[in-house]
Automatic annotation (TrEMBL):
Domain Nudix hydrolase: start-end pairs: 1-118
Official protein name in the record: NUDIX hydrolase
Cofactor needs: Mg(2+)
Database matches in InterPro entries: NUDIX_hydrolase-like_dom_sf, NUDIX_hydrolase_CS, NUDIX_hydrolase_dom
Molecular-function annotations in GO: hydrolase activity
UniProt xrefs under PANTHER family: GDP-MANNOSE MANNOSYL HYDROLASE, MUTT_NUDIX FAMILY PROTEIN
Organism for this UniProt entry: Caballeronia humi
Keyword Ribonucleoprotein: no
Keywords for the protein's UniProt record, in alphabetical order: Hydrolase
Amino acid sequence: MKDRATVLCIRNGRILLVARERSRWVLPGGRIRRNERPYAAALRELEEETTLAAVRLLYLFQFDGFRTQHHVFFADVDLHATAEPNNEIAKCRWFTPTKIATLSASVPTRGIVELFFRHVGIVNPTTPWSESPAIPC
């Protein structure tokens, strides 16, 4: 099984997703290099793909995909920083959780977003983020 650092970045109730040209939307992240810690890989991948630098990075949980084990992190980024597609990434955009369900998004991305809501105590992803103090905005 491959190890991947996956980053959940949330701003104003929206989740940052990235996509390569003609690919599905996914959470930022990528393969963990040999002798690299998942934490360092998450920081590196977020910046490489979106040009965003995490102010704070918090480990959330592991998620097993088909052939990949995702080490999922929550990233705090500067409120005024702009996400720009970089390297192999063709586009990056902020989506509401309910919109993610209608996108052409990867199965692990959908699963991680759903698990995140359960992790912070929200079962229904349509609940406004501002109504729950447990969710970082």
